[in-house]
Structure formats: structure tokens, C-alpha cells
């Protein structure tokens, strides 16, 4: 399992979220298997995504695809401010 943490700055969260929800098939084909959405408490248009992928390589290919960049533009993403590609080392509970 691979993970990505991405920070997006969007024009309008509701507009972005509607597009996100409608793109589940596109994201699933790209290898995405799960996600968490966060936003800053003082700015709902500053979004952080924790996304699960099947492999790091498929995640990187998806993130570089022209189709994704068109979808980001269409959904009102002003900036893809950060990208972090991660491999899970350990998972625990307390």
C-alpha cells in the first residue's frame, strides 16, 4: 500500500468537492483505494488529502497525468501546493 499527502488551494470547497465526488471512477481506475479529506480550521479552501494507492508508481503516474491536471483546473484548484509520496512503515493502535 502506498500513500500520498497532497495540499490543494481551491477557489471554492463546495465546487471542488462536487467534482471530487463525481470523479470516483477516474480515481479508482488510476489505482486509488481510499482517502481522507482535511481542511484548515480557519480556511476550508486550503485542503489536505491523505490518499491510499495500490502502488507508488501508479500514484505518481496518476498525479502527472494530463487528465488529472485538466480535472484539477476544472474543479477550481488554484494551486497544488504540496505532494508527498509515502510508503507505510508501521501501523498501530493505542
Write a structural description.
The protein has 94 residues and is of the alpha+beta class. It has a single domain, classed as Alpha-Beta Plaits. Helix content is 36%, strand content 43%. The protein contains four helices and four strands. The protein has helices at 13-22, 24-29, 56-64, 66-74, and strands at 2-10, 32-40, 43-53, 77-87. Strand 2 (32-40) and strand 3 form a beta hairpin. The chain is globular and about 35 Å long.
Structural class: alpha+beta
Give the H and E element order.
Answer: EHHEEHHE
Strand adjacency order, main sheet: 2-3-1-4
Instruction: Give the CA-CA distance, first to last residue.
Output: 22 Å
Q: Work out the radius of gyration.
A: 13 Å
Q: Specify the overall morphology.
A: globular
Keywords:
94 residues; single chain; alpha+beta; 36% helix; Alpha-Beta Plaits; four-stranded antiparallel β-sheet
Amino acid at each position: 500500500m502506498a500513500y500520498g499527502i497532497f495540499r490543494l488551494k481551491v477557489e471554492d470547497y463546495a465546487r471542488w468537492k462536487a467534482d471530487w465526488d463525481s470523479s470516483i471512477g477516474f480515481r479508482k481506475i488510476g489505482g486509488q483505494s481510499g482517502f481522507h479529506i482535511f481542511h484548515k480550521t480557519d480556511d476550508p479552501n486550503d485542503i489536505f488529502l491523505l490518499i491510499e494507492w495500490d502502488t507508488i508508481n501508479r500514484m505518481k503516474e496518476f498525479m502527472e497525468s494530463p487528465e488529472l491536471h485538466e480535472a484539477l483546473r476544472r474543479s477550481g484548484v488554484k494551486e497544488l501546493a504540496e505532494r508527498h509520496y509515502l510508503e507505510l512503515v508501521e501501523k498501530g493502535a493505542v
